[in-house]
Amino acid sequence: xxxxxxxxxxxxxxxxxxxxxxxxxxxxxxxxxxxxxxxxxxxxxxxxxxxxxxxxxxxxxxxxxxxxxxxxxxxxxxxxxxxxxxxxxxxxxxxxxxxxxxxxxxxxxxxxxxxxxxxxxxxxxxxxxxxxxxxxxxxxxxxxxxxxxxxxxxxxxxxxxxxxxxxxxxxxxxxxxxxxxx
Length: 182
Hints:
alpha/beta; Nitrilase/N-carbamoyl-D-aminoacid amidohydrolase; 2 domains; 6-stranded mixed β-sheet; 6 helices; about 15% strand
């Protein structure tokens, strides 16, 4: 996190927006604006990442500035499929600016840092940061082991590694009864 004149900034890379803990840990350190770089296929429909962007903004009382790539090359994905979808979401979950498909510079909005800070200081139901009891979750996190650590210590890791590791994790979680198999 970087404390700057324009607010406390924190980076959330593409898929990290889907993991609430990443944003929450940054908010616990004082983040006010999440800078989310992404390369996602644009859709007019609500996607999991779009839902997550709104959720991260609301639950952390923070702005989300999500910048999508303006094209992708050397990929089997069509080059213009990731054009569009950049957006600015305020700490209440309101989309302030958003681009549609195609090249654009339209995803911009004013970030009212003073209003955010006032709301973070105001007691009430909407102040989710001040009402959290993080210690309630600590035991569940410390006792749960899903995706294993240090699986890429080998020098040669190929794409199959990720699929195989995830499949092994799923099988273990089914055996433990955490998820239900078919």
